[in-house]
């Protein structure tokens, strides 16, 4: 007997805490990964894996450092740095908190009886991931 594919879960805009808990368990199992990388004093984060609600694969990439024009602005909250240097003492990295919304790209129906109604951007779930102060990759570790 072959198993029929399940239809996508309906779109629902939700940020219920249970999805953050589910994302944590996915990080522990390695089905979801999160990391922060820095290059030339520019930090960015990548969260990749399965959505805790719809279980479709997604990748979320985002910059964490603001780049300024270098004319007296600030960069990454360091006033007066002029956009030329990111100054953080060794070991002083604060935790990184990421609010993620499913961006799986799979059409999710928006409700019963809706003609051709679908949300192609994701299933609507939002959840939070907090990366530890060392900013190392999470997920897939025993």
Number of strands: 7
Pairing-aware structural class of the strands and helices? mainly beta
How helix-rich are the residues, as a percent range?
A: under 10%
Q: Strand share of the residues?
A: 25-35%
Biggest β-sheet strands, sense, barrel:
3 strands, antiparallel
* Count of helical regions: 1
Unreliable stretches, pLDDT < 50, 5 or more residues?
Answer: 77-90, 113-117
Shape: globular
What number of domains? 1
Gap between N and C termini: 36 Å
- Average of pLDDT: 76
The side-by-side strand order for the widest beta sheet comes to 1-2-3
Sum this structure up briefly.
By secondary structure, this protein is mainly β. It is built from one helix and seven strands; from the N terminus they run αβββββββ.
Main attributes?
single chain, 142 residues, mainly beta, three-stranded antiparallel sheet, two-stranded antiparallel ribbon
Tell me about this structure.
With 142 residues, the chain is mainly beta. It is 9% helix and 28% strand. The chain contains 1 helix and 7 strands, in the order H-E-E-E-E-E-E-E. It has one helix at residues 17-29; strands at 32-39, 42-50, 57-63, 96-101, 108-109, 118-119, 126-131. The protein has a 3-stranded antiparallel β-sheet. Strands 4-7 form a two-stranded antiparallel sheet. It starts with 16 loop residues before the first helix and ends in an 11-residue tail after the last strand. Residues 77-90 and 113-117 have low confidence and may be disordered.
Fold topology:
Blueprint: H1 17-29, E1 32-39, E2 42-50, E3 57-63, E4 96-101, E5 108-109, E6 118-119, E7 126-131
Antiparallel strand pairs: 1-2, 2-3, 4-7, 5-6
């Amino acid at each position: 007997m072959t198993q029929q594919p399940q239809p996508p879960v309906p779109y629902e805009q939700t940020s219920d805490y249970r999805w953050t808990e589910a994302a944590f368990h996915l990080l522990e199992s390695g089905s979801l990964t999160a990391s922060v990388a820095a290059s030339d004093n520019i930090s960015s984060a990548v969260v990749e894996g399965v959505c805790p609600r719809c279980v479709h694969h997604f990748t979320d990439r985002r910059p964490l450092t603001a780049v300024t024009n270098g004319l007296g602005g600030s960069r990454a909250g360091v006033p007066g740095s002029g956009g030329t240097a990111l100054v953080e003492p060794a070991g002083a990295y604060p935790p990184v908190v990421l609010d993620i919304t499913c961006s799986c790209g799979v059409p999710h129906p928006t409700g019963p009886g809706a003609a051709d109604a679908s949300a192609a951007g994701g299933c609507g779930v939002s959840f939070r991931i907090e990366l530890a102060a060392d900013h190392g990759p999470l997920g897939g570790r025993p």
